[in-house]
């Protein structure tokens, strides 16, 4: 996309060395060459760019006073908050830490943003905030209720939901002119994927060619550059509203709103997986044969997953093959992005298949370089 | 005549047989032609309709009386035009002026044409075309205007393709050209029909504001026909698959039909079907704009037949060997479901979309795109008819409430701990007092302690003793006599 002369001012990317944040930094450089970028992250040694427009600031968002000092120094116009802690396993301790980072950290950022006169605050939420303990989420839109606590089976999603609520409450709050909005991406994948959706998906069972459920479950995936694109649209919309200084019509409003962001191309979950297997290259002695796919019914899958959880639990380890992963691969889960299309003028820049091809290509080249190194 | 093959087919597919019987017995036309009130000339036109149309005659004859004759005449005029375009034996210098001036011919009472080849199947229609012209003169001027306009544009389009040596030699090159061709021969029909429906007040005028919807209606049908007829067209020395598509798989068009290129041919046809699937959501949207049942049936039946045909062609190598058809039973079932409401029509679409998806081959380069196209159709159907009830009104919690809940939860946890401690404390106090009472009553705890420490209750070598005993007793039995 051609660079335009608009600017996001001085923009901070919280988690700018992470998967989504890094892609946002790159897109800002490409699209708003006038903008000044401050990356804030707990570790700034990965995904680091050597560019004079980007400053790197190591900081911990749970440390309020340090954050306050940094914000006072930076004098930011825009904050894009992508940082979150995704716990690997569920324990009391991991819950405590993720609450501290995801909820308290976000509240800290909101408070210092309000105090230091930030104009626009874009928060990376998650589509899972509306996904309860169900097997079907069909074409869900923003009218679905946000679930926390008992209604929300995943603690990570609870923290994201709480943070999102805090972000949207901070919009136009009496004390400041800060405008906020939340984006809820679904199934992010792509280049520099250190949460490695693609890798997780490709490793599991390429050798076995299995499928759980009837294979008719549609699922939303989103190529990371489209997610980055949506963030910039949202930031731009908030800044514009801020400049105009009038409250937009309810039907056009971006501030104080949440938006689902996907590729707009729900696909059958297992087709997506097979595409990755095939692009990645099947194991040498295998060709993918549709008639030989090993179809495991959901009930059987859940039974063995429970068994695996029990056995691994006795051995004191976390089971990779668990009920949650069965559910993640056999449930229907896709969203309606009309709101983002209408209000943010969001349209995915990259098609899903193109995204998968790019992602897999990048992953393969990364693997071959690390092999050489090793 | 019922063939042995079909007897076997329907014996093994009883649901299809049932569908046929159901359709024949229970289908009631929304409107019925009143033949008694028709003139001889009108009857003759309907005779030609039956003669020249296989699939459309039935639906046209059940149309609302207001549009019955206009649509029949519209069909015959376009059929006449098509018969001239198709006939390769007519020299260009005769053909082009007729095609370009066909709208004027409609104003010439008595015009007919006998220049078609003897074997041209619809030749007779043009030989007696004056009956169509005579009937055309009787319909409302508003309808005439629409029909003339479409006839003119279609005639010009056909003339362009006939006069295009490149097209005749190599067929269609790009996908854009392919869709343009489909526009002339089918998209325009969609436009003409829609304008007639709206003029008659039987469809929402909003349909005219979204011209891409009526275009897609025509495109979807025409593309399906082209996909299905590949072998027949090839045998007639014609090709409509765009080169842009088939050249990705084979060097020469005829290579598609070679057995060694089986997979390539299947992937090529799959890409053609993918192209057609992109039109489906707009077709369904269009159908939502039809107000009258007979018009709905007229529009919906060809569409559902088309998706079923695409499913029959999808990854079916027979496509390159003969004409692929859906069975009569399947057709009757589809017709029954297409003559009621949009909900049922979307279910037909969903069923065939899923069947297509199920057959899709992961090795096909367009595998994921086909999956996406199918998913898009399913999502669109969900938009029309959501299968999940609208979620409860978001009863949004504020951060404050959440904090409170968390505080309460924490309190609860502590409460639990306190209660546990209280229980333990109670048990402890009770035990102590019971022991105390026992002591006062003279219980000898010192003896108990002594016994415990000296190992009376849990003798240290108890286990060993047991094992030795067992071994000894076995040995004793083996020895066969008693020692003591």
UniProtKB/TrEMBL annotation, chain A:
Q: Which Gene3D superfamilies match?
A: NAD(P)-binding Rossmann-like Domain
Every 3-beta hydroxysteroid dehydrogenase/isomerase domain range: 12-289
Q: Does the keyword Repeat apply?
A: no
At the top level of its lineage, which domain of life is listed? Eukaryota
Q: Which Pfam families match?
A: 3Beta_HSD (PF01073)
Biological processes, Gene Ontology terms: steroid biosynthetic process
Q: Give the record's keywords alphabetically.
A: Membrane, Oxidoreductase, Transmembrane, Transmembrane helix
- Provide any one GO MF term from the record: oxidoreductase activity, acting on the CH-OH group of donors, NAD or NADP as acceptor
Reply yes or no: does the keyword Transport apply. Answer: no
Q: Where does the chain cross the membrane?
A: 7-29, 293-315
Q: Which family does it belong to?
A: Belongs to the 3-beta-HSD family.
Q: What is this protein called?
A: C-3 sterol dehydrogenase/C-4 decarboxylase-like protein
* Lineage of origin: Eukaryota, Fungi, Dikarya, Ascomycota, Pezizomycotina
Automatic annotation (TrEMBL), chain B:
EC category name: transferase
Supply one GO BP term. Answer: ergosterol biosynthetic process
Q: Which reaction does it catalyse?
A: 2 (2E,6E)-farnesyl diphosphate + NADPH + H(+) = squalene + 2 diphosphate + NADP(+); 2 (2E,6E)-farnesyl diphosphate + NADH + H(+) = squalene + 2 diphosphate + NAD(+)
**Is Transmembrane helix tagged as a keyword?**
yes
The UniProt record lists the EC number as 2.5.1.21
> Which Pfam families does the record associate with it?
SQS_PSY
Q: Please provide, alphabetically and separated by semicolons, the GO molecular function terms listed in this UniProt record.
A: D-glucose transmembrane transporter activity; squalene synthase [NAD(P)H] activity
Pathway assignment: Terpene metabolism; lanosterol biosynthesis; lanosterol from farnesyl diphosphate: step 1/3
Q: Which GO cellular component does the record give, naming just one?
A: endoplasmic reticulum membrane
* Superkingdom to which the source organism belongs: Eukaryota
Could you list the residue ranges that cross the membrane? 416-441
Q: Which cofactors does it use? A: Mg(2+)
Identify the keywords attached in UniProt to this record, alphabetized.
Lipid biosynthesis, Lipid metabolism, Membrane, Multifunctional enzyme, Steroid biosynthesis, Steroid metabolism, Sterol biosynthesis, Sterol metabolism, Transferase, Transmembrane, Transmembrane helix
Compartment list: Membrane
Q: Which family does it belong to?
A: Belongs to the phytoene/squalene synthase family.
What is the documented function of this protein? Squalene synthase; part of the gene cluster that mediates the biosynthesis of squalestatin S1 (SQS1, also known as zaragozic acid A), a heavily oxidized fungal polyketide that offers potent cholesterol lowering activity by targeting squalene synthase (SS). Catalyzes the condensation of 2 two farnesyl pyrophosphate moieties to form squalene. The presence of a gene encoding a squalene synthase supports the identification of the cluster as being responsible for SQS1 production and suggests a likely mechanism for self-resistance. Catalyzes the condensation of 2 farnesyl pyrophosphate (FPP) moieties to form squalene.
Provide the protein name.
Answer: Squalene synthase
- In its UniProt entry, the species of origin is given as Microthyrium microscopicum
């Amino acid at each position: 996309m051609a660079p335009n002369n608009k600017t996001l001012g001085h923009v901070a990317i919280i988690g700018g060395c992470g998967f989504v944040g890094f892609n946002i930094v790159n897109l800002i450089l490409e699209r708003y060459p006038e903008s000044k970028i401050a990356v804030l992250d707990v570790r700034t040694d990965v995904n680091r760019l050597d560019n004079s427009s980007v400053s790197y600031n190591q900081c911990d968002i749970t440390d309020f006073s340090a954050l306050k000092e940094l914000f006072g120094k930076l004098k930011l116009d825009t904050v894009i908050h992508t940082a979150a802690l995704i716990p690997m396993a569920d324990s009391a301790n991991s819950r405590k830490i993720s609450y501290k980072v995801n909820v308290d950290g976000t509240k800290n950022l909101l408070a210092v943003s309000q105090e230091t006169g930030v104009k626009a605050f874009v928060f990376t939420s998650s589509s899972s905030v509306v996904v309860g303990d169900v097997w079907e989420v069909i074409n869900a839109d923003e009218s679905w209720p946000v679930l926390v606590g008992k209604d929300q089976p995943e603690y990570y999603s609870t923290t994201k939901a709480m943070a999102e609520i805090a972000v949207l409450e901070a919009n136009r709050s009496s004390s400041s002119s800060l405008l906020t909005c939340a984006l809820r991406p679904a199934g992010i994948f792509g280049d520099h994927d250190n949460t490695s959706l693609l890798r997780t998906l490709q490793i599991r069972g390429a050798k076995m060619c299995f499928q759980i459920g009837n294979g008719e479950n549609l699922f939303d995936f989103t190529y990371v550059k489209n997610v980055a694109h949506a963030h910039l649209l949202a930031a731009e919309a908030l800044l514009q509203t801020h400049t105009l200084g009038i409250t937009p019509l309810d039907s056009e409003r971006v501030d104080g709103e949440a938006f689902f962001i996907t590729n707009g191309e729900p696909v059958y979950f297992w087709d997506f997986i097979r595409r990755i297997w095939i692009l990645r290259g099947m194991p040498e002695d295998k060709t993918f044969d549709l008639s030989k796919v090993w179809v495991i019914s959901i009930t059987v899958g859940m039974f063995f997953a429970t068994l695996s959880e029990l056995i691994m639990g006795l051995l004191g380890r976390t089971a990779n093959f668990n009920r949650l992963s069965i559910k993640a691969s056999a449930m229907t889960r896709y969203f309606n992005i009309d709101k983002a299309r209408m209000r943010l003028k969001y349209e995915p820049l990259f098609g899903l298949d193109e995204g998968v091809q790019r992602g897999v290509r990048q992953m393969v080249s990364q693997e071959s370089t690390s092999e050489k190194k090793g | 005549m019922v063939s042995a093959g079909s007897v076997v087919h329907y014996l093994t597919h009883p649901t299809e047989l049932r569908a046929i019987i159901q359709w024949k017995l229970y289908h009631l036309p929304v409107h019925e032609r009143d033949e008694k009130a028709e003139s001889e000339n009108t009857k003759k036109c309907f005779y030609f309709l039956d003669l020249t149309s296989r699939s459309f005659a039935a639906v046209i004859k059940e149309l609302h009386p207001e549009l019955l004759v206009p649509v029949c005449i519209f069909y015959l005029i376009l059929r006449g035009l098509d018969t001239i375009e198709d006939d390769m034996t007519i020299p260009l210098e005769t053909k082009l002026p007729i095609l370009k001036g066909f709208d004027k011919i409609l104003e010439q009472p008595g015009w007919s044409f006998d220049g078609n080849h003897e074997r041209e199947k619809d030749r007779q229609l043009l030989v007696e075309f004056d009956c169509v012209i005579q009937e055309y003169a009787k319909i409302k001027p508003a309808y005439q205007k629409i029909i003339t306009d479409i006839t003119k544009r279609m005639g010009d389009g056909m003339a362009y393709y006939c006069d295009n040596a490149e097209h005749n030699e190599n067929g269609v090159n790009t996908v854009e050209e392919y869709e343009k061709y489909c526009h002339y021969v089918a998209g325009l029909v969609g436009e003409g029909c829609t304008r007639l429906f709206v003029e008659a007040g039987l469809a929402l005028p909003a349909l005219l504001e979204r011209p891409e919807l009526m275009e897609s209606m025509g495109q979807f049908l025409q593309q399906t026909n082209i996909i299905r007829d590949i072998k027949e067209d090839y045998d007639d020395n014609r090709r409509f698959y765009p080169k842009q598509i088939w050249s990705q798989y084979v060097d020469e068009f005829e290579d598609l039909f070679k057995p060694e290129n089986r997979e390539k041919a299947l992937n090529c046809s799959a890409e053609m079907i993918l192209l057609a699937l992109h039109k489906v959501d707009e077709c369904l949207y269009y159908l939502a704009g039809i107000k009258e049942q007979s018009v709905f049936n007229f529009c919906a039946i060809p569409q559902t037949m088309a998706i079923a045909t695409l499913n029959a062609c999808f990854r079916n190598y027979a496509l390159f060997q003969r004409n692929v058809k859906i069975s009569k039973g399947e057709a009757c079932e589809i017709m029954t479901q297409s003559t009621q409401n949009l909900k049922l029509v979307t279910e037909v679409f969903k069923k065939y979309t899923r069947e297509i998806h199920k057959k899709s081959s992961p090795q096909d380069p367009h595998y994921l795109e086909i999956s996406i196209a199918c998913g898009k159709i399913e999502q669109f159907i969900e938009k029309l008819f959501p299968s999940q009830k609208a979620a409860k009104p978001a009863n949004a919690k504020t951060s404050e409430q959440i904090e409170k809940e968390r505080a309460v939860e924490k309190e609860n946890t502590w409460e639990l701990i306190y209660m546990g401690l209280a229980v333990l404390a109670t048990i402890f106090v009770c035990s102590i007092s019971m022991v105390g009472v026992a002591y006062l009553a003279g219980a000898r705890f010192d003896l108990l302690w002594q016994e415990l420490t000296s190992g009376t209750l849990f003798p240290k070598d108890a286990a060993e003793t047991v094992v030795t005993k067992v071994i000894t007793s076995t040995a004793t039995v083996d020895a066969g006599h008693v020692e003591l």
